[in-house]
Design brief:
globular, alpha/beta, binds pyridoxal-5'-phosphate, 8-stranded parallel β-sheet, 9 helices
């Protein structure tokens, strides 16, 4: 087995154990393989091992990889900070965006989503625990943002995403509660489509799954350490 295949097997077992420990049905948690900084060849090898959904957080890098691997049936997720001058490439290339945190970005993505593609699957990134960080919507502004996204064509609002400070497991429960609050207060949301809690990474996926994560974004535990710094 390749290193990736071994890591994938171990990670799936980790996820299954976490689901079981949380008393959740097995198979509820999706795995997004975060391939940022790793070359297209690594993604190809990952696909051969059985992984088809990949996350990128730099637009240029993600678009280049998606082009190079256009022969494979991959599902690309954009998970990084998104500036308005990069929305077109994201709208044209990715199936999901996890990091929508303001209405201006949502409007641009909606207007730029090519009509022949299915709606862009959107999670709203919530600044759940770190007021110093600039990415993520403030919880108080979230209902307004959710309503705005619901009203836009070309987008489907699928859930919420967070990147808490390391060790702050309480943030995962807070995001799960935030989803419940939105479901209760916005009639246009249905629990079976607004179904995603994108939370948990290599170091904290057990805590995220215990709190209700439905999608973990995992880089290091699958691909190994990144050789250059990840993210701004
Ligand atoms: C890099 C990154 C991940 C993966 O982090 P690991 O600790 O390598 O698993 C997950 N989510 C986001 C938003 C990232 O930027």
């Amino acid at each position: 087995m390749s290193d990736f295949a071994t890591n994938l097997k171990n990670l799936r077992e980790r996820i299954a154990r976490a689901e079981q420990a949380a008393g959740r049905p097995s198979g509820q948690v999706r795995l997004l393989a975060v391939s940022k900084t790793h070359p297209a060849a690594a993604v190809r090898q990952a696909f051969a091992a059985g992984q088809a959904a990949f996350g990128e957080n730099y637009v240029q890098e993600g678009v280049a990889k998606a082009r190079e691997l256009a022969d494979l049936p991959l599902e690309w997720h954009f998970i990084g900070p998104l500036q308005s001058n990069k929305t077109r490439e994201v709208a044209e290339t990715f199936a999901w965006v996890h990091s929508v945190d303001r209405e201006k970005i949502a409007r641009r993505l909606a207007g730029q989503r090519p009509p022949h593609l299915p709606p862009l699957q959107v999670c709203l990134q919530v600044n759940i625990d770190d007021e110093a960080s600039k990415s993520g919507c403030a919880p108080a502004e979230l209902p307004g943002l959710a309503r705005a996204v619901l009203a836009l064509p070309g987008l489907e609002l699928r859930g919420l995403m967070c990147i808490p400070r390391p060790g702050n497991a309480a943030a995962f429960a807070a995001l799960a509660q935030t989803r419940q609050d939105l479901l209760a207060s916005i009639p246009g949301l249905s629990p079976d489509r607004f179904d995603t809690l994108s939370m948990g990474m290599s170091d904290d996926l057990e805590a995220a799954i215990a709190a209700g994560s439905t999608l973990v974004r995992v880089g290091t535990a699958l691909f190994g350490a990144r050789s250059y710094p990840a993210g701004p």
